[in-house]
Amino acid sequence: MEVVVIGGGLAGLVFSLEALKTGHRIVLLEKEDTPGGLLKTESENGYVFDTGGSHIIFSREPYKLNYLLNIVGRKNLLRHRRDTRIYYKGRFIKYPFENGIYMLPPRERYEILKSVIETYANRVKGLLDEPKNFEEWIYYVFGNAIAEKYLVPYNKKIWKRDLKEISLEWVKGRVPLPPINDVLKSAVGIPTEGYRHQLNFYYPLEGGIYTLVENLLNRLSSNKNFRLITGVNVEQIYKQGDIVFVNTGDREFKGDVVVSTAPLPQTLNYIDKRYARKLDNFDYNSLLVIGIGTRFKALPYHWIYFPQNSIVFHRLAILSNYSPKMAPKNGTTFLAEISIPPGEQINTDKLERRVIEDILSLGIIKESDVVQTKSWFWKYAYIVYRQRYSETTKLAKRYLLEHCVITLGRFGSWTYINMDETAYRARMTARNLKSTFRLYRREKGLEG
Ligand SMILES: Cc1cc2nc3c(=O)[nH]c(=O)nc-3n(C[C@H](O)[C@H](O)[C@H](O)COP(=O)(O)OP(=O)(O)OC[C@H]3O[C@@H](n4cnc5c(N)ncnc54)[C@H](O)[C@@H]3O)c2cc1C
């Protein structure tokens, strides 16, 4: 089949690689000059920044993990045991919070323990109402103390929404339930680990997270059935008979099927603006990533979460602890992440200044140590699961399939997925492309 792929991020590249193996021909259209989507890396004076925010390689499923590790190449991989913190009342508490309780003063430990036990007992006795939204779920599972000290303020900061507006669908399978035993152990000072599927993670020794993209492009470039066209922004998709046309303003491409990894609401827009407006339930947050390069080594952690509003970023990653090649010798590469609700006007210069001041306020660097600052804005970063999330996305995907458009990727499928799942779904879609398409045509009575 002739396939037009929209978007050269991880989803588009993995899909292309796998679809070529089953004999399809691919034209991949990417609007930026460099493919990679969120997985881009830039280097300035020896400071290496992953411009789409901190990215580590991990997975619950070994086969999904191995696929990504093989793309990077085993010789260029570092394996880390996560050392991640939450900045809370001037202390760097071990993450997840419920596993770091032992680092809190006795009164706070007592408050948390009491609230966790009471909530647990009430839940088991059936005295608590079933949660109906994300905020209620936090209180229902963790109790008031952990909710109010960390989870609610942190989530409000990253989601920039009333947490009651966020659907429970977001939580399913994503936010791990804390084993009561871990909380008890942690409160009395016995160290435990939570969020275990991410306890060990991988990162390229050289090249930052873009290594994944670079290696995928190397594998694709030698295939004569693959064509990559960069700097072309898809604006319209339409069908004539059995052929789908993709218009990029001054050029037109055609295929039997289109695979779009562009954000789902945008893909709808390329076909029918009125229908896209009708399904207007696609909420998201943007992201400003601010990279700071400093002299001297600062802090031994991989990344730190900041629940308090007095600090502008919700997360600060220390990329030079992911790989020593991410900073000059004795330097530190920081990456601060600030989530931005859609449409909010931002002043990047002011925010860069604010990030530096906030890092200075932690007392870990001096102003004169800062040698490099740069920022990158990403319109689509976090999908916000509103109520009626499933209903809307299902309708949208069904509508697109009727126009021979298959959606894929984090924003294409409008699902909060990481690289492991993004790559896995891209592979499966490529492998099953013919049968999915035939089944669809048969259902529609287009094929006997
Ligand atoms: C802050 C942050 C941190 C993350 N951390 C991790 C992590 O630690 N580990 C992990 O596994 N995952 C992580 N992820 C998730 C990971 O980034 C994604 O799963 C993955 O990069 C998604 O790839 P994609 O191809 O679906 O999307 P994208 O990377 O967005 O690629 C889509 C591509 O389509 C192009 N495009 C869009 N519209 C058009 C158009 N009209 N015409 C042509 N081209 C178009 C874009 O330019 C882009 O190149 C993180 C995500 C974020 C936001």
Task: Please give a handful of descriptors for the protein shown.
5-stranded parallel beta sheet; FAD/NAD(P)-binding domain; globular; alpha/beta; single chain; 7-stranded mixed beta sheet; 448 residues; binds flavin-adenine dinucleotide; 12 helices
Radius of gyration: 23 Å
Please count the helical segments: 12
Fraction in helix: 25-40%
Strand content: 15-25%
**Mind summarizing the main beta sheet?**
7 strands, mixed
Question: Which geometry do the CA atoms define?
Answer: globular
Write the SSE topology:
Layout: E1 2-6, H1 10-21, E2 25-30, E3 41-44, E4 47-50, H2 62-72, E5 77-81, E6 84-88, E7 91-94, H3 106-124, H4 134-159, H5 180-188, E8 200-204, H6 210-221, E9 226-230, E10 236-240, E11 243-247, E12 252-255, E13 257-260, H7 264-271, H8 273-278, E14 283-295, E15 303-305, E16 315-318, E17 331-340, H9 348-361, E18 370-384, H10 389-402, E19 405-407, H11 419-431, H12 433-443
Parallel strand pairs: 1-2, 1-13, 2-9, 6-15, 13-19
Antiparallel strand pairs: 3-4, 5-8, 6-7, 10-11, 11-12, 14-17, 14-18, 15-16, 16-17
Helix pairs in contact: 1-6, 1-11, 2-11, 3-4, 3-5, 7-10
